[in-house]
UniProtKB/TrEMBL annotation, chains A, B, C, D:
PROSITE patterns: 3_HYDROXYISOBUT_DH (PS00895). Residues 165-284 form the 3-hydroxyisobutyrate dehydrogenase-like NAD-binding domain. Residues 3-161 form the 6-phosphogluconate dehydrogenase NADP-binding domain. It comes from Agarivorans gilvus. Keywords: NAD, Oxidoreductase. This is 3-hydroxyisobutyrate dehydrogenase. Coiled coil: none annotated. Pfam families: NAD_binding_11, NAD_binding_2.
Length: 286, 286, 286, 286
C-alpha cells in the first residue's frame, strides 16, 4: 500500500488531504503552522515534523501551497523535501507556480534521486472538497502511473500531459480562454442592459443556447448584484493573461483578443479591483 | 381553434411548419417556389396562393424567410401580407432582419389594422427540427399571448422582450458574445497546439471545467479537422458584430473585446472565408 | 472676372470669405443670421437675401456650414442654392458632411443644371485665417479648374481627387491617422510620466526625432497643462473613426489599430469628454 | 584634455568615433575584429589591445556594440573594461541593451571604482555620420558633465535623464510611439489605396497637415515601392513594444493601442518579416 504525504493544509490542501484519508490511504501531513494538522490527525492522518521527514517516510508526497516562494521553501534547504526524498520516491507539486520555479524544483528533486510531477489544478474550494478537480499532470510518467489512484480521489480528470512545463502551459491556455470569455460576457451584459433588455431574460437566453456554461451561470448574478467576493482574484487572472501572451510571443503567435482582454483586466487592476473576483472586470465596462 | 399560416419553407421554415402540423394546428403554407409546399400538404397542411390570401384566412401568420429583402417582399405590395391581414389578425416575422426592416414591416401591418411581433430565433437546423429553438419575441403583447402555444411547439423558450426592436437587440447581444467566445477559443486552441499540447486533451480539459459549453464541443473538432462546412456563415457573424458595435456606439459604450473580435472576423472575410462556417476564424489565427 | 458667392460666415467661413475679398475677388455673402454679414460688407462684399439669390448672381458659390442638416438646408428648398443656380454655374460645398449628404447635394445641383464639387478642408481657425487650409476637392473637373484661383487664396494645397466622395474619403483617412497618432501619443506620455521621465524632456526627445510633428507639439503641452479647450471636438473625431471603420468594413479591410483607437475615443466620450478637445482622450489613459 | 576611448566600430560606432577624432579629441579605439581599426588609426586614433587596456588609459570610454551579450563581454572578464577602469574613470555604454544588462554593467563598473552612464541613442546610420543622434543619458551626473563635450560632437541633443534605467525607459517610450504611428499609418495607407485614392496625393495631404513627420516621408515611399530594405529591423521594434507593455504592466497602466500594435508586429513576424524593415508591418494590413 502506497504511503502518501501531503504538504500544505490551506483551504484547498486540507480538503484534498481529507479526501485521501477518507479514501483509505495512509496519509502523513505537514503544515508550516502545525496546529492546522489537528483535524487531519483526528481523522487518522500522521503528522511529520518537517518536509524532509515527510518525504523520507512516504512513497509519494503531494504539495499544495500558496505561491512560488512557499513551493521553493518546502522543497529546498536542509529541512526540505529534496533533502529527504532519496532514491526513487516521488514528489508531486500541485501548487500553481511559474515555469522557472517548476524547473528549479524538478531539478532539485531529480538531482536528489527522486521522481517529479508538476500537477497544477483547475478548480477552487468546492471541487477540492467534492474531489472533482481537474488535475494537469506533467513530468515523470512512472510517477504519474503510481499517483493515479490518488489523483482519482482528488479529481474528476487527471490527464498526463508530457514533460514538466506542459501542465503549466495547459493551465495558461485554459485561463486565457476563461479571461476572454469573461471579458466578452461583461461587454455583452453591459450592452444588453444599456439596450433596455432584462438581465434575467438575457441570462436565461444565454443559458438556453449553445454558449451556456457554468461560469456565466455563476458570474452573471454576481455582476448584477455587484457582488465581487473573490473566488479567483482578478490580479491572478491578469498575471495568467500576461504569461499566456508571453508564451504566444515566444511561439510567434499573434493573440489580439487575448491582448485586449489583458488590457481590460489591467484597466480593472488600475481602477483598484486587483483583489476582487475576476467578475469585477465588468465594473470598467458598464 | 387558431388557424395558423406559415410563409417560407426553407430548411428552417419547413421544419418549424411541420412541427406545427404534427402538433395538431390547422396550418396553411405558402412558399415563393410553390413546389416546396408538397411535403407539408401531404402531412395535412393547406396551401395558399399568395401571402395576402394566407394572411386573410389565418388568425396568426408566421414568416421565416432568408433576408430583409424577402421579408419586405412578402409583406408589402398588392399580394403581400399587409394587404390581406385586416383588423386584429396577427403577423409574426421570425426572419432575422435589421432594425429598419423590422420597423417598416411593423408599420405596414399596424396601419393595415393587424398586430405585429418580431421573433428572430437563436438556433439552426437541428433545434428547428427538434422544436428547441430560442425565440426572441417583441412587439404586440396580446399577439404574443395568442402565439404562445405555437411558440411552445417550435421552441424551448420564447420570452416576451418588450417593444419591437428588443428581439433584434437580444439577438445581437447573444451573437456578439458568441463571436467573442469563438475568437478567444481559436486563440487558445492555436496557443495550446503550438505549445505542444494534445488537441484532444485540451478539449477534454475545457469540457471538464467551468467554461464547458456546447459550442466549444461542436466547433473544437471542426477546427482540428479543418472542416468548415457552414452552419452559421462567417460573414453573417461579422455583420452581427458590426451591428452590435454600432448599437454600443449609439449607447456610448466602449466594447474593445467585441471590436477586436470584429476585426478578427473581418480578417477572415478578407482572407476569403466569408461563406464558410464561423469556425473558420481559426484559420487566420493558427 | 469671376463673381464669387460665400454662404456661411461662422469662424471658418468668415475668415475664408475675408481672404477672398482681400485678394480682390468680387464677393457676395449670405448668412442665416444676416447680422454676421456686416464685417464682410464693410470690407467691400455684397450681401444676398437668400442662398437662391446668391447662387443666381454668382459664377461660383462656396458654402462652409456647421453640419449636414445646415448643408442640406441651404441647398434644397424654394430659397436654396439649387433653386437659383441654373445652367453651368458652380457650387462648391466645403462643409464636412457624410457621404449620403454629399451625394444628395450633388444630385440636386446637377439636376438643376449646375456643376458641383465637394471640398472639405483639413485645418481649423488659424489656417483658415492664414489661407493655409488643405482643401480636398472632388467632383466636376471643369469647376475645379475654375475654382482653383479661389482655392489658392484659401488654402496652401487643393489637389483634385476625382469623383464626388473621394474628398470625404481622403478626409476620413487623414483623420483616422490623426486619431491613432493621438491615442498612441497619449499612451506614450502616460507611460513616460509614470516611469518618472520628465515631461519636457520627453517632448523634446520626440521633437528631435523622426516622429516630430506639429500635432504633438500642440497637443503635448495641452495634456500636461490639463487644458482641453476645444479646437477639434472629441466627438467629431470619434465619429470620423467610426466612419473610417465602416469604409474599411465595406472594402473588406481589417483595421485593428483604428478599431481600438475608436474604442479609446468612445471610452472618453462615455467619460463625459465629448465636447472637449481630442487631446482629452489622454484623460482616460493616464 | 580628456582622453577618449571608443569600443565597437560597427556601422554606428565607426561613424561616431570618426566624428570624435575629427573634432580634435585624443581617441583610442578597440574592436573585436582589430582590422576594423585601420581607418580610424589612419585618421589619427590610437589602437588598444583589449577593452581593459583601453579603459585603463582613457578618462572616458564609450562603447557601441550590437547586443547585450557583446555589451557584457567587453565589460566583464579579465580583459574587460571593469578590470581596467580603476578609480574615478568613466564608462559610457551607448549600446541598446535591456534593463538587467544595464544594471549588471553599472554594478561591475561601480564596484571597480568607476563611474557609469547608460546612453542609448535614437537614430541610425545617417544621424551617426552627421553627428545628429539623440543621446539618452542616465546614471552618474558628474560623468555626464564630463562627457557632454563628446556627446555634443556625436548628437544634436543629449539630455540627462536621471538614474541608470531612465535612458532605456525613454527609448522604450519613444519606440512605442513610433510603432503605433507606423501601425496606424499602414492602416491609413491601405484604406486610402483601397478607396481609390492616389498614393502620392495621400502622402502630399498628410505632409501638408499637422501630422507631417519625417518618418511618414521616409516610410511612405517604401510601402508603395514594396521596398523593405532594413534600417530598423521589425523584430527589434516588436521586442521594444513587448518591453514597453511589460513596463506598463509593472506600473499598472493599460495601453490598448500599444498592445494591438504589438500584435500587428507579431503578426508580421509570424508572416516571416522579422528581419525586414519595420515598414513591412504594412504587408499584413493591405
Amino acid at each position: 500500500m502506497t504511503r502518501i504525504g501531503f504538504l500544505g493544509l490551506g483551504i484547498m490542501g486540507k480538503a484534498m488531504a481529507l479526501n485521501l484519508v477518507k479514501a483509505g490511504f495512509e496519509v502523513t501531513v505537514w503544515n508550516r503552522n502545525p496546529s492546522k494538522c489537528a483535524d487531519l490527525v483526528a481523522q487518522g492522518a500522521k503528522q511529520a515534523d518537517s518536509p524532509k521527514e515527510l518525504a523520507a517516510n512516504c512513497d509519494i508526497s503531494f504539495a499544495m501551497v500558496a505561491d512560488p516562494e512557499a513551493a521553493l521553501a518546502i522543497c529546498l534547504g536542509p529541512d526540505g523535501v529534496a533533502a529527504g526524498i532519496g532514491e526513487g520516491r516521488g514528489y508531486v507539486d500541485m501548487s500553481t507556480v511559474d515555469d522557472s520555479t517548476s524547473q528549479a524544483i524538478a531539478q532539485a528533486i531529480t538531482e536528489a534521486g527522486g521522481r517529479f510531477l508538476e500537477a497544477p489544478v483547475s478548480g477552487t474550494k468546492k471541487p477540492a472538497e467534492d474531489g472533482t478537480l481537474v488535475i494537469l499532470a506533467a513530468g515523470d510518467k512512472s510517477l504519474y502511473d503510481d499517483a493515479l489512484p490518488a489523483f482519482e480521489v482528488m479529481g474528476k480528470m487527471s490527464p498526463y500531459l508530457g514533460e514538466v512545463g506542459q501542465g503549466a502551459k495547459m493551465k495558461l491556455v485554459v485561463n486565457m480562454i476563461m479571461g476572454g470569455m469573461l471579458s466578452i460576457f461583461s461587454e455583452g451584459m453591459a450592452l444588453g442592459l444599456k439596450s433596455g433588455l432584462d438581465a434575467q431574460q438575457l441570462s436565461d437566453v444565454l443559458d438556453a443556447g449553445a454558449m451556456a456554461n457554468p461560469m456565466f451561470k455563476v458570474k452573471g448574478p454576481m455582476l448584477l448584484a455587484e457582488d465581487y467576493s473573490t473566488s479567483f482574484p482578478l490580479k491572478h487572472m491578469q498575471k495568467d493573461l500576461r504569461l499566456a501572451l508571453a508564451l504566444g510571443d515566444k511561439l510567434d503567435l499573434a493573440l489580439p483578443t487575448a491582448a485586449i482582454t489583458n488590457e481590460a483586466f489591467k484597466q480593472a487592476r488600475k481602477a483598484g479591483y486587483a483583489d476582487e473576483d475576476i467578475a469585477a472586470v465588468y465594473k470598467t465596462v458598464k
